[in-house]
Write a structure and sequence with these properties.
The protein has 218 residues and is an alpha/beta fold. The protein has ten helices and seven strands. α7 crosses α9 and α7 packs across α10. The longest helix is centred in the C-terminal third of the chain and has 16 residues. The chain is globular, with a radius of gyration of 18 Å.
Length: 218
Amino acid sequence: MTDKTKVFLVDDHPLVRDGLVNLINQEPGLEVCGEAGNEAQALARIATAKPDVAIVDISLENGSGIELIKSLKTWHPEVATLVLSMHDESLYAERSLHAGARGYIMKREAAKKVIQGIQAVHGGRLYVSEKISALMTEKFVNGRTAPAEPVEQLSDRELEVFQLLGCGQNTRQIACHLRVGFKTVQAYCARIKDKLNLANATELLSEAIRWNDAQQNR
């Protein structure tokens, strides 16, 4: 009898984790060995649980899924990371892979995709949609193309700040959420304004809200 593949869940919505626990534990050969709602919890518990695969959301309570993926790559390189997120794959999939993830699935996909994704990344393979695979192949063959939209110019941290602004958080709240200094967030905001060619903080906030609403409606 072979050992089961151990899966660790990182998502700040308990109902999502409960659904994944039921889905994964019903699959022969898979079992959930632990779960966490934020970045700090995940790092502490993964060290003890020693999973084979970690399923990580991009948006986490008091932290960042992208930063967690980077930390897992550094401290637990034996853990294969699979992203399961509501965020648009065209903007976040390649960032996640660069951070160290082995796959990316959007939450609106069928449940069987999650099982397929776990099995693929545990087997050492990448798991992304045909759309993302085609885009990555095109970039490899033709070289990097210009960003499809200005927001793609933002770094991982800048994009996270931009998204949090669009969700209604102010600068001090973002600093607390990301566990960085207030002036650090101000510096991120200044760089975002420059990259998106926005004149002031009002334009920045308006564009962040508009972009976030568009993401929610995709």
